[in-house]
């Protein structure tokens, strides 16, 4: 079947982003990521996007597909196309590096704020330890109306990971601040969009209740 992929393009130095349309003939079961790779291989090698595992584990391929944050590798094109059209845009709330590739250092650097041990430098290269089920895709930042507009906000995944890493009923003090759980407006878009069911929104509410009841402290 023929689909029209409309991709938001942006390269460093461009004055503004633009949308380019590509026609692709693929099966409806084809993933949006595979369709993008087909475009890259057959039509436009300058198209930039991130991927690695191709099965929903590495978190690299988060993007906004027809207005909704998803992992492109586990999203079937036939299920999301509207009238044969699929609009693909980079995640919101992150700096665009090139086309669909964004700089997620805003999220990764905050892991160090809540759990300094999760960031280590080995021969000058930052290594990240994988935490729980979160695939660090950044989808929750993109979907969250606060993370989108308040860059200092720790963000859903970081708060949830800090809580799950808590010891002796204590969490990092930064969670009890305007950058932490009190910034959340309880939209719950993070939990709705999270591709692995991590439910960061529910965890944020749990932390708030813990602070208000005195059952949770800070260290
Ligand atoms: S909490 Fe979910 S949406 Fe957020 S980074 Fe982790 S896996 Fe992605
Ligand atoms: S390529 Fe790894 S999650 Fe999509």
From TrEMBL:
UniProt pathway annotation: Carbohydrate metabolism; tricarboxylic acid cycle
All copies of domain 4Fe-4S ferredoxin-type, residue ranges: 124-153
EC number, UniProt record: 1.3.5.1
Residue ranges of domain 2Fe-2S ferredoxin-type in the record: 1-92
Keywords: 2Fe-2S, 3Fe-4S, 4Fe-4S, Iron, Iron-sulfur, Metal-binding, Oxidoreductase, Tricarboxylic acid cycle
One GO process term, biological-process aspect: tricarboxylic acid cycle
An MF annotation (GO) of this entry: metal ion binding
First-level EC class: oxidoreductase
PANTHER family cross-referenced by the UniProt entry: SUCCINATE DEHYDROGENASE [UBIQUINONE] IRON-SULFUR SUBUNIT, MITOCHONDRIAL (PTHR11921:SF29), SUCCINATE DEHYDROGENASE IRON-SULFUR PROTEIN (PTHR11921)
Protein name: succinate dehydrogenase
């Amino acid at each position: 079947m023929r689909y029209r992929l409309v991709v938001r393009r942006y390269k460093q130095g461009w004055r503004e982003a633009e949308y380019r349309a590509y026609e692709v003939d693929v099966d409806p079961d084809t993933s949006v990521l595979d369709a993008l790779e087909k475009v890259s291989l057959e039509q436009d090698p300058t198209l930039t996007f991130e991927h690695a595992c191709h099965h929903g584990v590495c978190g690299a391929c988060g993007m906004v597909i027809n207005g909704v944050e998803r992992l492109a590798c586990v999203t079937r094109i036939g299920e999301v196309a509207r009238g044969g059209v699929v609009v693909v845009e980079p995640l919101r709330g992150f700096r665009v590096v090139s086309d669909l590739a964004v700089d997620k250092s805003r999220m990764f650097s905050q892991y160090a704020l809540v759990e300094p041990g999760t960031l280590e430098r080995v021969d000058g290269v930052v290594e990240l330890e994988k935490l729980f089920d979160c695939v660090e895709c950044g989808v929750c930042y993109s979907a969250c109306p606060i993370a989108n507009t308040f860059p200092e906000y720790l963000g859903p995944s970081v708060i949830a990971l800090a809580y799950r890493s808590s010891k002796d009923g204590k969490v990092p003090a930064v969670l009890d601040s305007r950058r932490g759980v009190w910034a959340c407006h309880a939209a719950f878009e993070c939990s709705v969009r999270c591709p692995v069911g991590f439910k960061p929104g529910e965890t944020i509410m749990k932390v708030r209740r813990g602070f208000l009841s005195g059952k949770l402290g800070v260290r």
